[in-house]
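Hi Q.,

Before the meeting this afternoon, I wanted you to have the flavin-adenine dinucleotide prediction in hand. No need to reply - just skim if you have a minute. The sequence and ligand are here:
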Amino acid sequence: MKQDYDIIIIGGGLLGCATAYQLAKRHAGNILLLDGNEIASQASARAACLLTRARIKPALMELVQETYDCIEEIESLLDESLELQMCGSITIASSEASLKGLEALEEAACRFGIPNERIGKERVKELLPWIEEEAVDVALYMPTDAFIDSALLCSGYAKAARKLGVTLRSNCKVKEILVEDAEVKGVRLATGEAVTAPVVVNAAGSWANLLMRPLKVGLPFTPVRSHFWITSIDATRFPANHPFTIIPDARAFTRSDVGGLIIGLRESQCQAFDLSTLTEKLEDFDFNKAAKWTVLDECAPLLKKYLKDIDDLPIAHYMSGPSCYVPDAKFIIGPVARYKGLHTVTGCCGGGVAAGGGMGRLAAELILGETPFVNPELFSPERFGEVDPFSAEFQQRCADARSNKKGG
Ligand SMILES: Cc1cc2nc3c(=O)[nH]c(=O)nc-3n(C[C@H](O)[C@H](O)[C@H](O)COP(=O)(O)OP(=O)(O)OC[C@H]3O[C@@H](n4cnc5c(N)ncnc54)[C@H](O)[C@@H]3O)c2cc1C
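Predicted structure with the ligand bound:
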């Protein structure tokens, strides 16, 4: 039977677009990417945009390095800048526990060849004039860490994929994934049109399980709330391109952005969302914004040691969105055993900006039967056995994996 496409990708966020790019680069045939909204408009437009290189899990470092490589390749392919800002990062330790974490990170960075140096209080103050240097016991500076506008990066993957022949259709919702005799056949659009392909990649982010449910497949993640606050502009105090910080003792990160300070805080009990209540657009979803001050009240005292006047800083913006969390805080990439031809790339665990290029590469390699560049078992969709992502109990397991997050 004639197929309309060789591969259909559902979802035009970072993970779908990165997969499309990686497949097209490998000449994977006739590829269609569909998004029910505009491309790069959902979770991928809400990130804090940190591209933290050093990770304690080695495979994650490989995935992040691939994103950095993709950025260079795409800039050269498109002959335009994706505006990577190499501002560096500073990880700060002020307790025994966080010192151990910092040492592990330092060791991982050295092993992987990521430039890093311990810096003293004076140098920290020089790099971050707003910080109370007395609160800093040990600081690890990684000058090649960067941030990037996540929507721009996502559009970059999409444009590069299109240049390499991928067909992109936005505002084109998939209603169902078509299967027959345990084999994928294509998708049916909300318009009723059926589009055929022997391979379908579910990269629908927070919505991925809604498409899997009729197939009796449960992907092991749930969307949990990630959020950050942005102070009003004070360009003298928070100049652009100062290093971003990771402060595990305060469960916080900061990044300066056009003269304001982005403050990311992680609560001790992270909020999960029932998948069946998701709206088609995140703009219409209430991430329990009313709780933003309660969370700030819980978390800000931990940061006060480093940012003394946090109670008086005017907050100009608040951003919240979903991160798809998995109980072991590792991504979900690869084939879905129950149906031949069905693949997924999701479960971003708050790291799709940093690791998206690598996640897309692994997904592409597994679809094409190439030797994977990292151990795929770590990310297998099947590794938890059967799960019910619609159950409150499973959603709580995912939220627990995100609660008290300390890293970058
Ligand atoms: C507040 C916040 C801060 C973050 N900070 C960072 C950070 O600093 N660093 C980092 O690495 N990561 C960060 N992240 C995580 C990052 O944003 C995500 O990992 C990434 O955006 C996930 O991309 P995605 O493609 O899975 O999801 P999305 O961007 O949501 O894309 C999924 C797409 O699927 C489409 N879709 C869904 N259902 C259908 C359907 N039925 N038919 C067609 N299309 C469909 C949707 O329209 C959507 O465009 C942050 C996230 C949040 C919320």
